[in-house]
Amino acid sequence: MAYLETAPLKKDLPPMPPFERAEPALAAAITRRGYTKLTPVQNAVLDDRLIDRDLLVSAQTGSGKTVAFGLAFGPSILPAMFDKARERPPLALIIAPTRELALQVRREFEWLYEDAKASICSCVGGMDPRDERRALARGADIVVGTPGRLRDHITRGSLDLSRLRAVVLDEADEMLDLGFREDLEFILDAAPVERRTLMFSATLPREVTALAKRFQHDAERISVHSEKSQHADIEYVGHAVLPNERENAIINILRYHDASRSIVFCGTREHVKRLTSRLANRGFSTVALSGEFTQSERSHALQSIRDGRARICVATDVAARGIDLPELDLVVHADLPVNPETLLHRSGRTGRAGRKGVCALVVASNRQRSAERLVRGAKVKLTWAAPPSASDIARLDHARLLQSPFLQESPDGDERAPVDALLDAFSAEQIAAAFYRLSKSGLPAAEELSEIGEREQKKGPRRDFEDGEWFSISAGRKQKAEPRWVLPVICKSGGIDRKSVGSISIRETETLFEIHPDKASLFWQTVSEQGCVERALTIQHVGEFRDQPSPGASPIPARPDKSRHKKRKPRRDGPPARRSGDKQGKKAGKRSGSAPKARSRKPKS
Fold first, then answer.
1. Per residue in 211-239, pLDDT tens?
2. Are 342 and 320 in contact (CB under 8 A)?
3. Is the pTM value of this prediction over 0.90?
4. CATH topology of domain 9-224
5. What are phi and psi of 245, to 5 degrees?
6. What is the Cα–Cα distance from 333 to 8, expressed in whole angstroms?
7. Class of domain 463-553
8. Is the domain 234-389 a CATH 3.40.50.261 member?
9. Is 312 within 8 Å of 254 (Cβ atoms)?
10. Measured between alpha carbons, how far is 431 from 435 in angstroms, rounded to an integer?
11. Residue 332: which of 256, 266, 240 has the closest Cα?
12. pLDDT tens digit string along 68-106?
């Protein structure tokens, strides 16, 4: 197989009207879609030299590859599509690594081939195969699917590839990484020899080029590199935090950026569950996405993000490749990815189609070097900064309040009467205070974070807490309460800092905690007015320390005073008592009713 390496595209392609080389039906669709110019990879595949040629294309994530291969094989299939007398086996087959990417490709092709009136069918795991077989029997011009399901349809005879004119492998490197080589080889062997084979991939490792060498003929290799550096539209920011405060930092990052759509990547399904629950309890509109979800659940979660019903998606790496969420402005790495490639694929969900994006890495303070190696391998620039503090977020909230669109316009005719009634009944100060409280009520509370390098206070009683006030929060060992998350909840609920919290005693169904006497009145007033920041919990005033837990909880004694107990002297008047399973006891009592013989020691000479 011969490769023709293209030079940088800005030198190869002369300036031309944006869509002159595209098929008329496709040019009309992309114009109606709002395109003003094509991306470099889209321009590259429309070169006149490449018509009817096989292509091996490498281009970075977010470069417009889906529309690119739709434009590329248009000349190969459109003439046959307009032939009404032809049979209806598919003319183009697109193979994608995941269900989400395959369904996204289908949505893109529905508008791209709308004027051509193309019939498009998807074949992916998790969907009813009977519905797919009926759709294939009715006839489909373009089929999009995942390798396993496509192979199943070919084996059962429901997918006829005899008229196929173009095959596309989207994210070829990912499909090989996922172990689909055998399925891909089966599908390509079943396709007609006289066809176009287009391979699109973010990277071109040896496995991809070997596959291309076997199944492509006289292919041209195109490497598209943006004039700007990789992910130039994405700002990478690293936030080093204490290991037990990572989730608190994520809450503050989400509050600080206040993005219309965000995605938070976790390393495991369990972390997805825990973080989703935590964010939902704090008032964030959140959905989860991981491999254990059914296809309908995953589709519903993504649609919730797309239509604005949810603003945050907490996901594993199953969502890192190929998923295009519109207006996604923030990507948060709750757990560091395993390699630079995964970092780029995760981060590439933002900064797409010319939009700016932010990628935040939440890094435990003991893993900063690992994070730096990761970004060096990905060849992106990372800026370290302290995570947003509660005061930073409060200042931003104040600025956003003053810029609220509700304050920018004068009341219209329908609003004039109720506005006048409010002004007659209340002062301007009362109305402003009400507006402030309403705007604040819908915002999740920020977290107090420790500064890196700040040493934890030594354990032990604090002398300045001798007259402290005791309170309780409705979470204990039964609810898996731990000081690391109880303490921030206490501080935020009462508007105090960590130094104002003394001893913490976790019981079975509640946790008792002590507040400094100078802060107790302010703490209780704030909690009485606003309640606990964790909506499922309540805080009550106890007064003096309770030795017994609240009614209904199992009695747990207070921590014993070690000074009252004297150390027991070891027994010297005989062997230890015999106990079940005690080897020493068994050996001592081997002779029934007799004590072991004493050993005589000879005096030193």
1. 999 999 988 898 876 544 556 678 999 99
2. yes
3. no
4. Rossmann fold (3.40.50)
5. -120, 20
6. 33
7. alpha beta
8. no
9. yes
10. 6
11. 266
12. 999 999 999 988 887 665 567 899 999 998 888 898 899
